[in-house]
Amino acid sequence: MLLSELKTIDVFGKEWRDTINGVSYFSSRVVLNLEHENEMIIEIPFGNGYEEQYLYESMDAVKHLFPSSRWYKESMQTWQAKNYYNFKLNYGIIKGCKKKDLYHGEPLNWCGRHHEPIPNRKHKQWSKS
Q: DSSP string spanning the chain?
């Protein structure tokens, strides 16, 4: 996918709070061009952070899909990229999930922070289980 083809970014997050240790954890699913023909999904695995950390990590993964872009090279903030490239950003998080509800897939490759998108897989809406 080219950055010029990017129309929407939808970030769906889930949060679990470890009340014993006082730490919040999240996982998220990023859907590029939701309900379009060239829809792509990126799964962000279990990580710790609270409030909008899920959004930061998700947008960082999207940014790394376009390494030759100004967004990547100049480390533009999400709102700057949104205005510059004219895409629509929707995001939300489901709080109070159970630990087992979070995505526990492959851990992040912190050397390159690279996430492989999953092409041709349609997103199914998450619900609080």
A: --GGG--EEEEEEEEEEETTTTEEEEEEEEEESTTSTT-EEEEEEEEE--TTHHHHHHHHHHHTT-TTSHHHHTT--HHHHHHHHT-EEEEEEE-S--GGGS---SPP-TTTT----EET---------
How far is CA 68 from each of CA 4, 19, 85, 99, 124, rounded to the nearest angstrom? 13, 42, 14, 37, 31
Which residues are 98's β-sheet partners? none
* Gap between the Cα atoms of 44 and 9, Å rounded: 14
Q: What is the pLDDT of residues 38-58, one digit of tens each?
A: 888 888 888 888 889 999 999
Residue with tokens 């010029």: 4
Quote the DSSP letter at residue 55. H
CB 36 within 8 A of CB 120: no
Q: 3-state class of 38 per DSSP?
A: coil
| pTM of model > 0.90 | no
